[in-house]
């Protein structure tokens, strides 16, 4: 599995996330750098689920753990095609919210590891879990408009 991943370019799992909604909803768009599509998300959970579907679709980064569920229906949200929320990248409204570049390098220990860059400030940080990624994004989004570009 790791040998297969070594042939994939480093930035293949990189996405650009545009926050266009208010600070409470985390809505916006994200686009995959290798594709010609972007996807609309309505919440933080939606953003994470769309990323998981994208990773499953492109087969990278490969997960080392299978997701668990309380019932026999696993990944119900995965059944919905990525094309249902797809838009063209030029259709993304350029609003005043922050923009992030998220590069998920690994999906180990039932979480993600990688880097996040805040485009407007040019700051890049490593994250070791999805929770840490959320906390970093939240610190930017809820810090107040004076910190946005």
Key attributes of the depicted protein:
single chain; 149 residues; alpha+beta; seven-stranded antiparallel β-sheet; disordered N terminus
Rounded radius of gyration (Å): 15 Å
Residues in β-strands, percent: 15-25%
Q: What's the average pLDDT?
A: 78
Shape designation: globular
Biggest β-sheet: strands ordered side by side in the sheet: 4-3-2-1-5-6-7
Largest pleated sheet: 7 strands, antiparallel
| Number of β-strand runs | 7
* Spatial separation of the terminal alpha carbons: 41 Å
Order of helices and strands: HEEEHEEEEH
Q: Helix tally?
A: 3
Which residue ranges are poorly predicted, with pLDDT under 50 across at least 5 consecutive positions? Answer: 1-6
Q: Estimate the helix proportion, in percent.
A: 10-25%
The helix/strand class is alpha+beta
Question: How would you characterize this protein structure?
Answer:
A hairpin with a 5-residue loop joins strand 2 (28-32) and strand 3. This protein has three helices and seven strands. It starts with a helix and ends in an 8-residue tail after the last helix. It has 149 residues and is α+β, with helices and mostly antiparallel strands. It has a seven-stranded antiparallel β-sheet, covered by helices on one side. It is globular. The chain has helices spanning 2-5, 44-58, 130-141, and strands at 14-19, 28-32, 38-41, 86-87, 99-106, 113-118, 123-127. 21% of the residues are buried.
